[in-house]
Amino acid sequence: MVGMWDDGRLCYGGDYNPEQWPAATWREDVALMRRARVNLVTVGVFAWSRLEPAPGRYDLGWLDEVLDLLHDGGIRVALATPTASPPPWFSLAHPDALPVTADGVRLHHGSRDTYCAAAPAYRAAARSIAATLAARYAHHPAVALWHVHNEYGTTCHCPHAEAAFRRWLVEHHGDLDTLNAAWATSFWSQHYTDWAYVSTPRATQYLGNPGQLLDFRRFWSDTLLAAYVEQRDLLTAANPALPVTTNYVLGDWVPVDHARWAAEVDLVAVDHYPSAVDGGAEEQTALAADLARGWARHGRRRATTRRGPAPVDGPATWLLMESAASQIHTTGRSHTKEPGRMARHSLSHVARGSQGAMFFQWRAPAGGAERFHSALVPHTGPDTRVFREAVRLGEHLDRLAEVTAGEVTASVALAFDAASGWALRHPGMPSTLLDGHAELAAAHRALWRAGYGCDVVVPGDPLDRYRLLVLPAVYLADDATAGWVRAHVEAGGHLLVSYLSGVADPYGRVHLGGYPGAYRDLLGLRVEEFHPLAADEQVLLSGGGTGQIWSETVHLCGAEPVYTYVGGVLDGRPAVTRHRTGDGTAWYLSTRPDDRTYRRLLTEVARTAGLAPVCPDAPPGVEAVRRAGEQGSWLFLLNHTDRPQRVPVTGVDLLIDTPADGTVVLPAGGVAVIREEPAPTASVTATPPMTGRPLPA
Ligand code: GAL
Predict the structure, then answer these.
(1) Most buried of 183, 195, 229, 467 (most Cβ within 10 A)?
(2) pTM to 2 decimals?
(3) Under 8 Å between Cβ of 180 and 189
(4) What are phi and psi of 40, to 5 degrees?
């Protein structure tokens, strides 16, 4: 890992919308940015109607002035193409480019994302505004990064989308027999005899076709990527030295396969907004950062110098591109982040490899749909807690430049597959509670609480550095994925598989002969029947824990029970099992254990795999993440409790530039980043023998 810029500083700043403010405010903004040590701002994300007020008539003078001001202030610019929000004139001139919902309703302008990315007029207009910006600013000294669009993630069912979907299907399936087989169209008389009969998955009287729904998402992932790539290529042609990115939005509603996209960006950029108010926010933050780091491993090439990219070996870098200064979005209300929480969230990302901390947004707007969204400069102005915390965060980030020499390394690989997450949400699944992201989060949370770091991987990623592979409800598996898991186990790796993993093929067709078809031999079992649970239902497990969401009839074929079901129709039957596989152990969860049980179980699984926590002596509530490399080792300690906490550690506390001689005391809600001296040895212990006994309660 290397830093983004040759001045070594981490990135700090956020979305800046000068188009919403008079010129006098721009000057104050630059002065305040300098006070906060902001060094990168994203400009112009939603400024299309101000950049091109009428078709082909550009008004760029104000942007010239803003970029010059920022440059004079020593602030770099991630210049955005504004294509996530076409102006009203565009929609009126090209009503066919407005998006259509699955029920055939054509949406209107008056918000953002008012386009169909398959509509030729939209794509042409997007290319045109991107080319105009490229021609004018590709060599502007302030511009250090291109930021294409905003949070690609829209779909559409208009005739343009439908035609493009058909073309994509022809390309992917080749002939109708293959498509009919993949979509299992003999079911409910859906057999297609002409490509013209195939449509996007529109609203239907009853359940839609699972294969069609999956392909629709894959099609959109590819179509949106093509829209990004054509802008990227224009921008790169204007100045090959400038890196290009686009900010990812997370969530299973997003029809984007982020891992695949990473190969097309120079920097993986993610936006993250936790939704939990309690400690869940910290856990969600850690997961988002681990996901981003995993995607960055698929990234192409280059770190950037102040004026451009320099080829480097190793994975592409990633950056937290948006986060909220003082707000957690929950259902129905927003929650103000408590003092210190903004810094903890930011540093949790930096600890996990982010090249800095960026925010949406610099200054809170007086009007518009997001008028009450938090900002580094709130409505009340700079004489505020939030701005003071922003200034302090800027100081801290400046002190942490050296950590970019370290990489996060983990011995646990947590698998995630976007399409599996989409498929679990499809109608006709045995439970509406199935949620791939929630399963990923539950496994990640258990590891996080037990103090183990993990890398998020996608099927096919190299696994040689991992002792343990976890598959949390990774529902789809083709032969390649099944072979990938098998090879890990055959190489002596440990495995934990949770329910519904490997049950279906990439089109959602069930692997027959007993679940989970792709892995039952490795796991030494066969699942005969599902028993999904109601939202408020639990099953009791031996050992004192409970299971939620799901339960199953498991037959052992070589595996041994670790926990059994207690009571009900599954009384005495296996709930959690393990199976000796050469040098490793393959564990199976036929239910979602409660958090305490999951954590205890994963601690045992990790211990069996010979792993140790990142910082075994960290007290509960203190998160520990290590970045290490040839030049040293840096331990991030984040105290998420409301009491001071002591952690045994030796080195230098970089944030206060003070030696830590054996112990560091973290203030309540505080953070320390320790340059460890001497650097510790790897967190892997000798593999203990498998005991064969059930886990203690
Ligand atoms: C992001 C988006 C920003 C802003 C923010 C609000 O998803 O990119 O433009 O809307 O959410 O949290």
Answers:
(1) 183
(2) 0.96
(3) no
(4) -150, 130
